[in-house]
Design a protein that fits this description.
The chain is mainly beta. The protein starts with a helix and ends with a strand.
């Protein structure tokens, strides 16, 4: 009789354990945790940066720091191999109205870098127009820059002491729309690119890019003449065949990165 009682007790304990295990797994009476959000947390400031007339020493004016800025390009060599890369030695932030498209006898910037404005928290007010002098591309190989490159871009040869802002030598971009990037603290930019290339007249094409803001910082804090800096980085791609380039030495798609630094010195 005692043995039978022990067996019954053991059976009850086994069933109780099974029920407890099932109940603990189902959690019918417990609320499920909320699903994690995939929306990034983006914090933006209220910085407003506007160009002045480039008066040195006036800290109320923002100036483009060309010495510490760059416009870089790259494209696949022979459409498939490693990259061909270069940078433009002469560039600027100016809309280049027709009256400005001429030859300038100067070794420096021929026009002021004043065609821009940046509003950190209101991209509808942000805009810029920029240009590069195509014949100033610098790949680090003089034979290429002054030879085949000029041929497949139809850029004129450099004339010492002269800056060439004529249609045959400038590629221009201008924004038509700037908006927040919902996935980052950056911005989505729609632009029109104008370049003559190997065509008979300048051609317009719409391109898209991304814009990043490098936040304002103070240089030389605690010194007699501190100043502030900030940066804008623009990345975009375009199809060079749209401008008449037929050479097989470089791929259809050219990538451009413009690193613009500003200060109020």
């Amino acid at each position: 009789m005692k043995l039978l009682s022990n067996k019954l007790l053991l059976l009850v304990l086994v069933f109780a354990s099974i029920y407890g295990y099932i109940a603990s797994c189902t959690h019918k009476d417990m609320a499920l945790p909320a699903a994690s959000s995939t929306t990034p947390v983006i914090t933006r400031g209220t910085g407003v940066f506007l160009p002045g007339i480039e008066t040195a020493g006036d800290t109320t004016q923002w100036k483009m720091d060309q010495v510490h800025s760059s416009v870089l390009w790259s494209g696949n060599y022979l459409e498939e191999a490693g990259l061909l890369t270069g940078r433009f030695n002469m560039f600027g932030l100016n809309s280049l109205p027709n009256a400005a498209k001429q030859l300038y006898v100067t070794g420096g910037q021929p026009v002021k870098d004043t065609s821009w404005a940046f509003y950190e928290n209101d991209p509808t007010k942000t805009y810029f127009s920029g240009y590069v002098q195509m014949n100033t591309s610098n790949t680090g190989e003089p034979g290429r820059d002054g030879g085949c490159y000029l041929g497949y871009t139809s850029a004129p040869k450099i004339v010492t002491g002269t800056q060439n802002l004529t249609d045959s030598n400038v590629a221009i971009i201008r924004t038509t729309k700037v908006e927040f990037d919902p996935q980052s603290a950056g911005y989505i930019v729609t632009m029109v690119m104008t370049w003559q290339g190997l065509l008979s007249a300048p051609h317009d094409t719409t391109i898209n890019g991304t814009l990043s803001y490098i936040k304002r910082a103070t240089i030389g804090a605690g010194t007699a003449k501190p100043y502030d800096v900030f940066g804008l980085q623009l990345n975009f791609k375009f199809n060079c065949r749209s401008f008449g380039m037929t050479t097989a030495e470089i791929s259809d798609i050219i990538t451009v990165q413009a690193n613009m630094n500003f200060n109020n010195r």
